[in-house]
Amino acid sequence: MHSTGTLLVSTTDFGWGSIGKLRLILDELDGLDILMDDASNTAELAAQIIGGRHRFVHSHGAPAAAALVVNDPVSADRITRSGTPVVYVDSLPYLWTTASEVPAGAAVYCAQRSLAGALPPTSPLRQWADVRWVEPIVPPPRRRRGGAGVVVSVGGLHSHLSGGASDAYLRAVLVPLVDALISAGHRIAAVCGNLPVWARTELAAMLPGSVRVGPFSAYEFEAALLRADALFTSPGSTTILQAASVGLPTALLPPQNLSQILNTEIFGVPGGSVITWPGSVIDRTLVDELRPAGEDAVLGYVYRQISEHSGDPAVRSVLREQFRALAACTGVPDGLSPHLRELGHGGARHVARIVRQTILALSPVEDSRWPLATGTRADAR
């Protein structure tokens, strides 16, 4: 298809969820040359995970017609100052409590709807005159075939503050979980995530040689979920919404960070297939007390607690018992709210339409304005 412009794209260096959102939006934007933001340290990683289905250009040449920025307020403001109009995508609007966590300006601000209620009292989004509330950014609906067994996923496992918490998480959660699933006779189809060499080596020794362990491209992961019978995953919103869209029974593992703590509560079913940290690891009351200071304040606490306490024999024992109990179930009870599918699945197409309109210097669509302080099912109706 003939090129209709160059789109500058940028994502945050936090896990893989933002890259997944970017991929889904780009899939709706055939005909554009894609220029990765060189100033972003996720440029190379994003190109690898997204795969080869898009026309990436490596020379700036003519200036970009517009920019698409996902969950990266610093890049959004930098690009806006350069004169390029920014379409900003916020997949976690219920998370932010300080002004620095959202861009100061953008041509269009798109926020993904969720089952969360009102925004936090100190949410900087309350100061935005116009936010475009979009449906979940997930792959187009496809029928899940199943039959391949269980998929286990721990995502990107990194952020600017995670340090040694990722390795501690894998030792306390991933390895014992896989052991419990094997012991209970489950067929494991894949273990997905940004796994270090030691983890891939240890897991490969536990599993048949045919089981793939390690990173998947976005398209490979989507295909794996369509073949899966159940999913055990850390509670990243992108994976949760993707699993819900295809009706895949999902168990939620202990959260890795603040957004995953909130995702467990917003998207999970209390008493269902949801495993949380013992209170000795994550004090939920303290998390709420730290939130007004911003996400980084909470992350510092969460990562420190996981690093220092997840190796405690008592904590390991509690987690192993929960893994064994869940693995003993003949069929994995779905831990996700049945209301998730009511949110829709058209967010990627909606954002893509806004990007095209921005490139053409047209006004953004007017039929998608949602009340700023809410993201409830009542609003969705």
What does this structure look like?
- The structure is a single chain.
- By secondary structure, this protein is α/β, with parallel strands linked by helices.
- It has two domains: 6-137 and 346-380, Rossmann fold (3-Layer(aba) Sandwich); 150-327, Rossmann fold.
- It is built from 13 helices and twelve strands.
- It is globular and about 60 Å long.
Summarize the structure.
This protein is α/β, with parallel strands linked by helices and 381 residues long. 36% of the residues lie in helices and 13% in strands.
The name of the CATH architecture of the largest domain is 3-Layer(aba) Sandwich
How many E strands?
12
Order of helices and strands: EHEHEEHEEEEHEHEHEHEHHHHHH
Please bin the fraction of helical residues: 25-40%
Judged by helices, strands and strand pairing, the structural class is: alpha/beta
Brief descriptors of the model:
13 helices, 2 domains, 381 residues, 12 strands, seven-stranded parallel beta sheet, Rossmann fold, disordered C terminus, five-stranded parallel beta sheet, globular, alpha/beta, 36% helix
SSE topology sketch:
Elements: E1 6-11, H1 17-26, E2 33-36, H2 43-50, E3 56-57, E4 66-70, H3 73-81, E5 86-90, E6 108-112, E7 132-134, E8 150-153, H4 165-183, E9 188-192, H5 197-206, E10 212-214, H6 218-227, E11 230-233, H7 237-245, E12 250-252, H8 258-267, H9 284-290, H10 295-309, H11 313-327, H12 347-359, H13 377-380
Parallel strand pairs: 1-2, 1-4, 2-3, 4-5, 5-6, 6-7, 8-9, 8-11, 9-10, 11-12
